[in-house]
Write a structure and sequence with these properties.
about 210 residues; Rossmann fold; 7 helices; binds S-adenosyl-L-homocysteine; binds 3,4-dihydroxybenzoic acid; binds magnesium ion
Length: about 210
Amino acid sequence: MLEAALQASEAAGLPPIAVTANLGKLLNLLVRVHGARRVLEIGTLGGYSTIWLARALAPGGELVTLEANPHYAEVALANIAAAGLADVVHLRVGPALETLPELAGEGVPFDFIFIDADKQNNPGYFEWSLKLSRPGTVIVCDNVVRDGAILDPDAIDPRGAVGAVQGIRRFYELLGAEPRVSATAMQTVGAKGYDGFAIALVTGQQ
Ligand code: SAH
Ligand code: DHB
Ligand code: MG
């Protein structure tokens, strides 16, 4: 089903930027280790990482995933349904900075949050993730190394996304200064080159 989701995404013209299988499995393991019941994903694409995450949910769990692009969302919904996960995955279409306040208004925190959308908005996604957290929530953020470009304050993102490196750098500043989280970042070299992910544990009261 995971392979089929990637194939259907490629056939529908989606960019090949899903997490690697290794990172997908790591996300799956982290959700299981945590025993998470409520998972939030920011950036669905074709639903590949969504399927890895949703398969890891504890019984009775649910996953909310946010996607701005209606065409990608349509492809993702088909992939999620084909994987038998339509009942546990709820996809909200729209810019995440518009759908995150809606979720916050609903007032139910998430146990695990995966940030993987447009990197220039990572600072805002991190702030909203904190609002949607409780002590014990785990926040994972993808693509925090970018071939090492994050070391250069003036870098143009090596993969073309405008403002991505600056968004990731600002995200690190917020992460480092935030007393309510304890965090680290891991560099990875693999099928999709040199990149990495950050992982944060929410320790403090909101
Ligand atoms: N998590 C996916 C990959 C996501 S790629 C996986 O690993 O399988 C990044 C996604 O974020 C793209 O689908 C893109 O359309 C979406 N995106 C970009 N800007 C966004 C925004 N402002 N709000 C929500 N989603 C956005
Ligand atoms: C790219 C990779 C990602 O994992 C992502 O979320 C966005 C873009 C890239 O390689 O361009
Ligand atoms: Mg990513």
